[in-house]
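tool_log.txt
---
The assistant was asked to compare two proteins side by side. It first ran the structure predictor on the initial sequence, then on the second. Raw inputs and outputs are pasted verbatim so the downstream comparison step can read them without reformatting.
(1)
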Amino acid sequence: MHESLAGDGVHVAQATVVGPIGASLTHEPDAVAEHLWRLRTERARSLLVLR
């Protein structure tokens, strides 16, 4: 979908978080939020997988 709409100025991205999100779990909430913010603001990637 990203490739189809990029020419119209639309950025489509998919984020997958593998594992639990929470304090002292696999993914810290602040770190996940930072990744999502960069995905939104930089528009450099269309796929993000956090393992």
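(2)
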Amino acid sequence: MSLVTLLPFIVLIGAMFLMTRSAKKKQQAAASMRNDMQPGSGVRTIGGMYATVKEVNEDTVLLDAGPGVHLMFAKNAIGAVLSDDEYNRIVHGVEATEDDEATDTPLVPDDASSLTATDETAAADDSRVDLGKNEAAEAGPAAEPVADGDKAADAEPKKTDGESDAK
């Protein structure tokens, strides 16, 4: 066989080797992160629950999720070990001090009320926005004056759903 026919197979085997190598590195990093957990550190489970590590065993972790709430999880269920600052910011809402770089980033509000205009000029301006309607159109057909020569049949509401009186 020539080298040209073997080249696609060699490239395929090389790509598979590189993909498995990077996946293995990620697994090793996750395993070392789980093994380096210490009691008192904040963690996030793969389900998204935040808790504090109370006790670390060989295959399990005892988590403190709140006052009087202790949960036993497998070590594989720990998604991330968080730094103290990040854990306090997420769970307790404690903001970073002024010396930290986190103060330069804009804060995201918890509700949308702070995003609306609260300027005194905007609040004092109670003028209505003109959408191109006139007052007669807003009042509807009953506000139009009825001429003396109109028929009594015009007093009935007009059918607008496609029905007709034809039989």
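---
observation on (2): The first strand starts at residue 42 and ends at 45. Strands lie at 42-45, 50-56, 60-66, 69-74, 78-82.
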